[in-house]
Amino acid sequence: MDWIRILLSRCEALIHRRQLDGELDEEMLAHIDLATAENRTRGMPEEEARTTALREFGGVIQAKERYRVQRSLPILEVLGQDVSFGFRQLRRSPGYTAVCLLTLCLGIGVNAAVFSVIQAVILRPLPYNNPDRLVHLTDSEDPQDGGILYKDFVSLREQSQSFAGMAVYYRDSGWSRVTLTGAQDPASVQGAFVSADLFPLLGMAPALGRVFTPKEESRHERVVVLSYGLWQRRFGAIPDIVGQKIRLDGDTSEVIGVMPETFQFPARDSQFWAPISTNRYWGDPSLNSNDGSHARGFYARWQAIGRLKQHVNQQEAQAELNTIFHRLERADPDSNRGSGIAGLPLRVEVNGNTRLALYVLFAAVSLLLFIACINVATLLWVRGVSRAQEMAIRTALGATRGRILRQSLTEAALLAALAGILSLPVAYLGTRAFIALGPPDIPRLQETGLNLGIFGFGLAVVLLCASIVGLAHAARNCRTDPAQEMKSKSTAITDSAELMSLRSVLIVAEMAFSVVLLTAAGLLIHSFVKVKAVDPGFDPEHAMTVNVSLPGGSSGSPSSLFDSILARLQVVPGVTDTGAIDGLFDLGPTDNLGLRSVEGHVPEPRRQWTALTWDTVRGDYFQAIGAQLVRGRYFSDQDGPYAPLVAVVDESAAHRYWPGENVIGKRFKGQDRRGRNDDWLTVIGVVRDIRTHGLERQPTPHIYEWYRQSGNATPDFVVRFTGDQAETAATIRRAVRSVAPTAIVSNITTVDQELSRQLAPRRFQTSVLGLFSLLALLLAFVGIFGVIHYSVACRTREIGIRMAFGAARGNVLAMVLRQGLVLALLGLGAGLAMDWAVIRLMSRLLYGVEPYDPVTIASVSALLLVFALVASLVPALRAASTDPILALRAE
Amino acid sequence: MGSLHGYTIARPIEQVSNHTVIMNQGTIYPALLRLQQGKWIKAEWGVLETGRRAKFYSLSKLGGRKFETETENWERVATAMSRFLAHPVEESRWTGYGFC
């Protein structure tokens, strides 16, 4: 315990140092006075009495020094001195300080921001009870979009021993979308129809009210649990929402609870949860039986989750799933052939490309942090060299090695600490910017908060880097002979050779990293250009689209209503063509379908089926969207309900089913109950592929039917207009409302805007990575400028001698430029080698561009070389303008 | 023991030790400070006969206890040492323990 008392009292002494100094002086004076007085009484003369007293006392200064060391904490005092000295040093060269701090701020801040996003979106565990015991049960062939059969689920739940519980829900969002009607405009709401055991399985309790019970589920009771968001938006967060009645698809449901904000199951846009048995497709026989007309994906509409029992691991569970599934397959080979059930760990559904893009961004910011570190290291290094003389003087005056080492380290740490403080707002703003500008397809992005852990990590990396440089530098300082160092600056020539080698390696590494970043960004930019250049097969400009859907349960034939809407739109001023279709911008997966028969061809077995889309069109859809007719004709009034069935196909479909043939007049049969099912359809026209389903997607074959023959609804209206966009949009809304006051009218957008929205994730990835690579290029620019500039400064004398011996200015200029160019070429080479190793990891993000795209690589190389040349040009010009006489005399 | 000034503490050291301990009187002050930091002695400002302000040190309760235990320790060590010196250990006893 004694040492604690001593330490405390030492700390206390730190505070009133000055007062204690005064007291010590006073005490020692008193001592000497007393001794002198005593000596006098022993008969010494005044003078002798005092000198004797002083002699006996010993060295006053030494005594005071030892007293001070004992009094407080000398280490801290020295540290304080070092810190204040460091501050003075930083203030004395504001340019250097600013560049260092800015570089580090960008490095640490941006890195922390991007990692925070990844942490919140991907790494953070799901907000459920023991989420790592949860398993997602889905189709093993197509886990993302596939599903399982309800009857298979029931068998699994009965037979499986690995799971403590299981719950099931509709996988397909389209089947769980309902119309919410009430006080406000009718709205289409995405919900989830789930089994009652879902909530206890996930361990989620409602924020308000209760969740439904298995009894309610089996009784098909219309009860609904709202999402926090829906409750806030649609119901103004009223506290007495529980017990209220709302209308979903025309049926009255009772609100029994509200889930907390973090509950987003199965998807982010799930806005309510209702018993699985109240879904309008519940019990639809086509959903659980295979009549041979559809691929499995069409009717395997469910997905399930299960909670593993305590001591069961995932492999064991999967083995059991396989066993059970084989039994099911034997019992019902038709439904289950060629598939399986996979139990995958439940995690956030992040689109694979988004996940990859986030990782690529993180790799990019990590490289950026590296580059920042290298830049700061070289800056510190240069600065250290320029202070060699100062250090030599310190050594000569008696500073120990430890003292100089400590001081160097303190300065580096000070810089890192300042950078840390300053980069906190950068990181925070970066995170906010990411949230604000990020594309809508990133789940949980809104919940991102700045992650202080990674912030600390960035800071630690910088600190480490600064310390290494500081140490290396101090070690060098200790090694040099102070006398030699002080004698003249001429050592700088030999020194710079040694120094250049290390600095060059750093600069080459920095440029190599920049090359990797630039290549990645370049490839994305090139992909973006390629996507933009894709021929959409239609004219997105001056076309507007509006989705009109009728509330579930509303009376009247939708077809006649759609007809009247179309007729009303046709007379809107400025509108030239109107038409409608189902599923204009459907971005979801496409089912594999087959044609029952194609005239002149053998029917395909199911495993040869490929993605195929049937669309029904109404009015002048093709003219309105601006399609290009390749051959034949569009639909017309002569194609009535009793006329022969006709179809328009796109080029993909023509190529897929009639390769190399003239398609017009060819006949085929569809596969389901559309139109008059057993009649032949005749192809009357071929259009270019209309790629509204995403420009980046491989176009799937489309078969277009005529509404008068298929009878399907066509909720997506397309209007070609000539006038002002906003005005037309308002007129269209009024027109639709006047004809169908109860219909749900979605936002009216132009087709152009819709396409641009589809490209949002790609645009975001491209611009962010582009920004990062630009920063990297800028840092590399500063780096190469610094190293060349410094080497020129060091070689002033050498250049002076060269010029005195007759070197022309051009020669000097070329010499310096060559130096920069060599560094750039080395960096470029190393960077391209790194490209070769890593860049293909991001190939999934590319479109129409190979990972080793020669155009990109050539542009990146050219860009880097130009930047390197420009960066070396200023120092080179300075070198070339050296006056040899001045240069030699200055030494 | 009453309170003493640094000089009064330092001066007798040489005489009491019979001139075996020779020291600069100034070095007493860091030592006194250390004792103070451990709260073993107390210091108070007082006024000398000459009218000059000076610090007077006195033993604290804690210091008194410390003094006793340390004295005991010292006596034990000193006794043990003198015994060892009076009866030197024979060499053969060491070899028995395998030291050689």
Shape of chain A: elongated
Beta-strand residue percentage of chain B: 15-25%
Name the average pLDDT of chain A: 83
Largest interface: chains, residues each: A-B, 30 and 25 residues
Class by SSE composition of chain A: alpha+beta
- Backbone CA Rg of chain B: 20 Å
Total helices of chain A: the number is 30
Structural class call of chain B reads alpha+beta
Question: What is the radius of gyration of chain A?
Answer: 39 Å
| Strand composition percent of chain A | 5-15%
Q: What spatial form of chain B do the alpha-carbon principal axes imply?
A: elongated
Summarize the structure.
Chain A has 891 residues and is α+β, with helices and mostly antiparallel strands.
Overall description:
The complex is a heterodimer of chains A (891) and B (100). Chain A is of the alpha+beta class and 891 residues long. In chain A, the strands form 4 sheets. In chain A, strands 13, 14, 16, 18, 19, 20, 21, 22, 23, 24, 25 and 26 form a 12-stranded mixed beta sheet that branches. In chain A, strands 3, 4, 5, 6, 7, 8, 9 and 10 form an 8-stranded mixed beta sheet that branches. Helices cover 54% and strands 14% of the residues of chain A. With 100 residues, chain B is α+β, with helices and mostly antiparallel strands. The mean pLDDT of chain B is 83. Chain B has a 3-stranded antiparallel beta sheet with strand order 1-3-2. In chain B, a hairpin with a 5-residue loop joins strand 2 (41-47) and strand 3 (53-59). Chain B is elongated. Classes of the chains: A alpha+beta (891), B alpha+beta (100). At the A-B interface, helix 1, helix 2 and helix 4 of A face helix 1, helix 2 and strand 3 of B.
Keywords summarizing the entry:
heterodimer, A: 891 residues, alpha+beta, 12-stranded mixed β-sheet, 8-stranded mixed β-sheet, 30 helices, 26 strands, 54% helix, B: 100 residues, 3-stranded antiparallel β-sheet, 4 helices
What is the fold's blueprint, element by element?
The complex is a heterodimer of chains A (891) and B (100).
Chain A lengths: L1 H14 L1 H25 L4 H12 L2 H12 L2 H19 L1 H30 L10 E6 L10 H10 L3 E8 L6 E5 L5 E4 L1 E3 L3 H5 L5 E2 L4 H5 L4 E4 L1 H8 L9 E4 L2 E8 L13 E4 L20 H4 L2 E7 L5 H18 L1 H4 L4 E5 L6 H35 L1 H9 L4 H37 L14 H28 L2 H6 L3 H43 L9 E7 L8 H13 L4 E7 L10 E2 L3 E2 L11 E2 L1 E7 L1 H5 L3 E4 L12 E6 H7 L9 E3 L11 E7 L14 E5 H4 L5 E6 L3 H15 L4 E2 L3 E2 H8 L1 H35 L1 H9 L4 H30 L15 H27 L3 H6 L2
Parallel strand pairs in A: 5-10, 7-9, 18-23, 20-22
Antiparallel strand pairs in A: 1-11, 1-12, 2-11, 3-4, 3-8, 6-9, 7-10, 8-9, 13-24, 13-25, 13-26, 14-18, 14-24, 15-17, 16-21, 19-22, 20-23, 21-22
Helix pairs in contact in A: 2-3, 5-16, 6-14, 6-16, 6-17, 7-12, 14-17, 14-19, 14-26, 16-17, 19-26, 19-28, 19-29, 20-24, 26-29, 28-29
Chain B lengths: L3 E2 H11 L11 H10 L3 E7 L5 E7 L1 H26 L4 H5 L5
Antiparallel strand pairs in B: 1-3, 2-3
